[in-house]
Amino acid sequence: MKVIIIRYSEIHLKGNNRDYFESALVSNIKTVLKDFRCQFGRSNARYIIRNFDENDLEAIIQAVKNVFGVHSLSVAEEVDTDLPAISNAALAFAPNSGTFKVVTNRADKRFPMKSMEISAEIGGDILDAHPDLKVDLVSPDNTVYIDIRENGKTFVYGTTIKAVNGMPVGTGGKGIVMLSGGIDSPVAAYMMAKRGMTLRAVHFHSFPYTSMQARQKVLDLAKIIKKYTLHMTVDVVSFTEIQTQIHEKCPEEYMITIMRRFMMRIAERIAKMHGAGAVITGESLGQVASQTLESITSTNSVATIPVFRPLIGFDKDEIIEISNKIGTFETSILPYEDCCTIFLPKRPVTKPRLDHVLRVESALDVDALVENALNNIETVVIE
Ligand code: ATP
Ligand code: MG
């Protein structure tokens, strides 16, 4: 029977927290498998998916591969622990050309042959059937694995598919990611989910200055991220009134600085409403005027909970590489305007001084503007 073997990142599953991590991992794998007909369960220190429709094989692999905490997968043949059956299965995994070796793991010590003997025997069978192949024990092109389990069953497989690793989502606390339509923030979300964070997103839009397409683009990004975060809800917050007020009452060059402070305040309030303990942004040091140390200091000073900036030390190239890998890039580069592009100053301050910022901001009724924005949230649950 064809099965899928799932290996987890063992390192996080040691010690007292093992059950906690493992049950989060199992529940997350079950979540991504719920659309498939299959059996999933633990068996002899591994997780195995059985009884699936072979047409779903590729889709199941893609889904499980993206579950944080999963280290790797193999598609294996599960046979009775009996030499002819093992040999038969191994032949199906034999390569067509090049070099190979057979590696055997014998957990069932009742099986009369030693690992090395089994490998030699099966390797011989493969050579008999494919006389062109050569054995190379040091750096073979292909390896056939034989894993003899304690329960009278043996797994035979060839390749190992690398998965995303990381920590199971749900084991790293909860955070609110500030999700724009750009390249960076979806990557920031991915990075924190990879460390086990449960995420919820906030997006600021400036309807009617920003379009419905711009809003939809962010929801589309949220949907892609959901592949990794497993659940996703976006709080869409109207920023129009705040921007209009800043535009009217504050010097132009402080527009972005003050806007950022409002975004942070609102994100933090949303975090508190949902029991989240951190805010996440896609900022990267020095990337733009609003991401200098001074600008970040100004934004950060309104926050009272940790603000995580997982991309702070990344170059744009590196961020784009991850964005491509996780599948958000093509959507991120769609040319819809972001709310930050409205009333954009010609010369934003790059090194705002906090005392100046506070003076400039005192022209506004900050509390009322924040409350008003919070009272008009549109919550979108991503299906
Ligand atoms: P991104 O590619 O994530 O948009 P960026 O390089 O365009 O980042 P900025 O526009 O300066 O950088 O934004 C910095 C961070 O502030 C973003 O990564 C995001 O976390 C947050 N942010 C910016 N605009 C919005 C928005 N409209 N809604 C929610 N968060 C936003
Ligand atoms: Mg942006």
Polypeptide structure, described:
- The protein has 383 residues and is of the alpha/beta class.
- The protein folds into two domains: 161 residues, 2-Layer Sandwich (VC0802-like), CATH 3.30.2130.30; 208 residues, Rossmann fold, CATH 3.40.50.
- The strands form two sheets. Strands 1, 2, 3, 4, 5, 6, 7, 8 and 9 form a nine-stranded mixed β-sheet that branches. A six-stranded mixed β-sheet has the order 14-13-10-11-12-15, sandwiched between helices.
- The model has no long low-confidence stretch (mean pLDDT 93).
- The chain binds adenosine-5'-triphosphate (ATP) and magnesium ion.
- Adenosine-5'-triphosphate binds next to α5 and β11.
Brief summary of the model shown:
The chain has 383 residues and is an alpha/beta fold.
